[in-house]
Amino acid sequence: MYENAFNSIEKALRAEEGISNELDYVEQTSWILFLKYLHDLESERRDRAELEGKDYKPIIDGQIRWDQWAAPKKNGQFDHNTALTGDDLVDFVDRSLFPYLARFHERATGPDTIEYKIGEVFTELRSKFRSGYILRDVLEIVDSLHFKTQADKHELSALYETRIRRMGNAGRNGGEYYTPRPLIRAMIRVVAPKIGETIYDGAVGSAGFLCEAYDYLRRPNISASDYETLQRRTFYGQEKKSLAYIIGIMNMILHGIEAPNIVRTNSLNENVLDYQEKDRHDIVLANPPFGGGERREVQQNFPIKSGETAYLFLQHFIRKLRAGGRAAVVIKNTFLSNTDNASVALRRELLESCNLHTILDCPQGTFQGAGVKTVVLFFQKGEATRRIWYYQLVPGRSMGKTNPLNDDDMAEFVELQRGFVTGPKSWIVDIATVDAKTFDLSVKNPNAPEAEAMRSPEEIIDAILARDAETAEILERIRGLL
């Protein structure tokens, strides 16, 4: 049922002239889904309060309630006579709904409240619907979706993830928000978080790392106290961009986290030297954006100045970790070998302040449309690196849209990493052998078969002439037999 609903929404949006691509599709679907989720959450809380004989004060009330403007009912049936449509509906959404919800910032007591999330979402986003008739169709479809059971949320989250993946494949900007889930799951299995530890992503995007970590930690027989810990005191994220913010919020909600601890802010605006113990986390999981060309004032927040966004994020993550904290961070493979001052200084800092115990070398095409090769750095804060275990991921096929990374591709890496086992695709580098001036950590597999040496032009010519002479001799023998 849910898949049919999502397909119907997509079909309706194709006819909407204000929505032009996959990014618009996910953005506009998200704010509508968010409001329907809030309505179902309020209904559940109201019913619970009635059973306990308590009063319930709604978060959203009056004409802004979902069942007043989006899906009015009469005797349990949709009331087409009172439902806004056409220009009236567009006008209501633009002039009343969004301004009202944006003011929730004023009443939010903190970023971990649902009021804060509402205020952020509707301050930054705008409805792109120009046709109130198409919007009416979408509202009626979304009204048929339910967020009341874990099974409902699980199916909706799978469909939503599919849309995020397609958005990631749609172009460069969309690719910023999507990290292949098999890679994320492998990173989480290596880091092995436990309930009670806090998990942080300072470039949260679509919240894939936090959602997969939640799925990893949540077990069917989980206790009430552990469940409360996962809901309230485990997952933390920060995101700069408005579209990614709402996608991340919606993705976490669909996975079952009621009020995600995601703050809309630029993590790089924070001075890393100001962090206190209360600001730090046990685990960092992230795929920060690269490139960027950060402004000089932003670079002043970091000991190692660089215009490369990923380098600033790596410094941010190191300092966000508690002593003994663990991290898995995706970064361009050129970080391992670049000879500029910032690259060398950052590699030195990482090796001296953390145990960089594992480097996973990912093949070309792991990130569709990215056009660069990446590695994953696994490190633990608090002691210097002595040995690094490398693993070169070789799926045995060309990676692409029709052949994406899958969980089977990652299985050997996860298994061998537990014991730092060496083999044809894995090896260990002793830090004592690394150049103390450049700290070059390039991926150089010593177990790979050596390529044959290139022959000189003279050798090639001699070989051709030898073959020609042999051919002439054979032909003369055949002539003698005729």
From TrEMBL:
Domain N6 adenine-specific DNA methyltransferase N-terminal: 11-79
GO annotation, biological process: DNA restriction-modification system; methylation
InterPro entries, alphabetized: D12N6_MeTrfase_N (IPR022749), DNA_Adenine_Mtase (IPR051537), DNA_methylase_A-5 (IPR003356), DNA_methylase_N6_adenine_CS (IPR002052), SAM-dependent_MTases_sf (IPR029063), T1MK-like_N_sf (IPR038333)
Transmembrane segments: none
Class in the EC hierarchy, top level: transferase
Keywords: Methyltransferase, Restriction system, S-adenosyl-L-methionine, Transferase
Catalyzed reaction equations: a 2'-deoxyadenosine in DNA + S-adenosyl-L-methionine = an N(6)-methyl-2'-deoxyadenosine in DNA + S-adenosyl-L-homocysteine + H(+)
Enzyme Commission number(s): 2.1.1.72
UniProt GO molecular function: DNA binding; N-methyltransferase activity; site-specific DNA-methyltransferase (adenine-specific) activity
Pfam families (UniProt xref): HsdM_N, N6_Mtase
Domain DNA methylase adenine-specific: 152-452
Family of this protein: Belongs to the N(4)/N(6)-methyltransferase family.
Name of protein: site-specific DNA-methyltransferase (adenine-specific)
UniProt lineage: Bacteria, Pseudomonadati, Pseudomonadota, Alphaproteobacteria, Hyphomicrobiales
